[in-house]
Amino acid sequence: MTILKTYARLWADDLDQALPLLEELTGEQPHLRTAFEEIALAAIGNFLVIAGPAEERARYAHASATVVVDDLSALQATLKRADATITTPETAGPTGRFLYARHADGVEIEYVEWTPELVRRIIRP
């Protein structure tokens, strides 16, 4: 199992309002934009902007980062050996499969295995 990319999470009320400053700071355009339930997401540089109503964003605020891995099944075996707790079981989402895990030290992370198309387009262009 390999970590392909790590995103710092940023929380915003409005995605379109948040992106111009990040575009200027990173010198990049968003390389991923999608929606999940009531939330709009954009990845730009090493940031994942999570936007939408505060009550909806709060459902995802327990994780401190989003980490893209190449093999979610192998990750789960690693987490189990490290006494981590899966807090949100493996679920299908717009970018692939994901889960949330709390490490033994209390840190909680969202882990995502992107679709092969996203890996080819963003990680290995």
UniProtKB/TrEMBL annotation:
Name of this chain's protein: VOC domain-containing protein
Provenance organism: Streptomyces rubiginosohelvolus
InterPro entries: Glyas_Bleomycin-R_OHBP_Dase, VOC_core
PROSITE patterns: VOC
VOC domain span: 3-114
